[in-house]
Amino acid sequence: MTDRRWPASSGCDESSFDAEAAIGTRIEQLYREHWPLVCGYLLRRTRDPHLAEDLAQETFVKATRALLGWRGESPAAWLLSIARNVLADHFRRSRAELPLPGPEELGAREPVVDALAVRDALDRLPERQRRLLVLVYFDGFSLAEVAAMSGRSVASIKTALWRARAAFADVYGDAS
């Protein structure tokens, strides 16, 4: 039955209200289940609890707007990818150009590791091992977060990471 207070052409019938209620319930469920994961990820990346909470709120606002386009994959992976993009946007907006002192001014030696050799060694690894190493060591994801994104157990990610490190050490050792 149509509510008589709304014109028929407005699209505001009971079924649209039911759909909105279902979306609201789904968003609330996502929020309750995944707030600690998203906020924890952002806290580790920013080391500022207030900023992490602000960015987590922004993550869930963006997730609410994008919920209709979500394909129903892992909600943790979906929310973490939104959080990563929100974090990148934040750093892009607030980037301050500060001159950094050189290693000699700090009393430190020049870096021993050659970044090009590391990238070359990574490029020679199989795709899965390379992606795993990049997620953990470059992007800073925890093993639990990588497990949630990939749909695998933490133990299997730990084993895969151990194997990827061993393969990297072999490839990097050959390059040296």
| Structural domains: how many | 2
Give the overall form.
globular
Number of H/I helices: 8
Poorly predicted ranges: 1-11
User: What's the CATH H-level homologous superfamily of the largest domain?
Assistant: RNA polymerase sigma factor, region 2, helix turn helix motif
Q: What is the string of helix and strand elements?
A: HHHHHHHH
CATH structural architecture of the largest domain: Orthogonal Bundle
Count of DSSP E strands? Answer: 0
Radius of gyration: 23 Å
| CATH topology annotation of the largest domain | Rna Polymerase Sigma Factor, Chain: A
Strand residue percentage: under 5%
Helix content: over 70%
Give the terminus-to-terminus CA distance: 76 Å
Largest sheet: none
* Average pLDDT over all residues: 81
Describe what this molecule looks like in 3D.
The protein has helices at residues 14-46, 49-66, 75-93, 103-106, 115-123, 127-138, 143-150, 154-175. It is mostly helical and 176 residues long. It folds into 2 domains: 14-93, Orthogonal Bundle (Rna Polymerase Sigma Factor, Chain: A), CATH 1.10.1740; 113-175, Arc Repressor Mutant, subunit A (Orthogonal Bundle), CATH 1.10.10.10. The model is unreliable at 1-11 (pLDDT under 50).
